[in-house]
Specification:
Number of strands: 9
Order of helices and strands: EHEHEEEEEHEHEH
Largest sheet: 6 strands, mixed
Distance between the termini: 36 Å
Helix content: 10-25%
Strand order of the largest sheet: 4-5-6-7-8-9
Length: 216
């Protein structure tokens, strides 16, 4: 794992964070070196994650002072003024534990009049467009690094698929993620940008450390 982009801020400085999420157990989505210092600034920091992954997360995070809030497909938790609902994610498949609980989740986050979708890691799957149309998120955050079996890791939407998914659910804005972090598992945002332009889909490519205020 060779990093392409350096860390933009020490997580110990992020004392304004009220809650965090983890979509699955891969290290770039459940990182003890980030969550430990972050939780140290806010003991009892809520961590929303799949029910199926709580035992694993406890082992990885050790003594980090987080409060584990389990979530599953169709389940909603209320935390810090946010309403967070789990949607199944396919990475590469919709994987469940012995109790039938999803190991990979996406999140619908509602707060006030706003609704945001964070995909976590996912491929396109039959239930995803319908459920996004139902929730009508204002802003969607989608991966664009695609699925190349030669990488030896689970895949994601590519840039064209991400643009199409945002368009079909009527998102006011789509923001791409999962690029420019590791050399072996990235993609240029150019395909995504070109697809959004063809579809007339509003989009914004954020670089490391950049801030978005909405509405602009």
């Amino acid at each position: 794992h060779i990093r392409m982009t350096g860390r933009c801020v020490d997580p110990a400085r992020l004392d304004m964070v009220d809650a965090v999420t983890s979509s699955h157990n891969h290290t770039d989505h459940l990182d003890a070196e980030t969550l430990g210092p972050l939780a140290a600034t806010r003991p009892g920091l809520p961590l929303v994650l799949p029910d199926a992954n709580i035992d694993f997360a406890r082992q990885r995070l050790g003594s980090a002072p987080v409060a584990f809030l389990g979530l599953d497909e169709g389940k909603t938790v209320e935390v810090a003024g946010f309403s967070i609902t789990g949607l199944a994610a396919a990475h590469n498949t919709i994987e469940r534990d012995d109790a039938g609980r999803c190991r990979f989740l996406s999140f619908i986050v509602q707060f006030g009049e706003w609704s945001l979708f964070h995909s976590g890691d996912t491929l396109w799957h039959p239930h995803l467009p319908h459920r996004l149309i139902h929730h009508q998120p204002t802003i969607v955050l989608l991966p664009i690094n695609g699925h190349d079996p030669a990488r030896g890791v689970a895949g994601n939407l590519n840039g064209t698929e991400a643009a199409a998914l945002a368009k079909c659910c009527g998102a006011s804005l789509v923001i791409p993620h999962h690029f420019d972090m590791f050399t072996f598992n990235t993609a240029s945002p150019d395909e995504f940008t070109a697809a959004c332009q063809r579809l007339g889909q509003p989009h914004r490519v954020l670089r490391c450390g950049e801030r978005l205020s909405w509405p602009e």
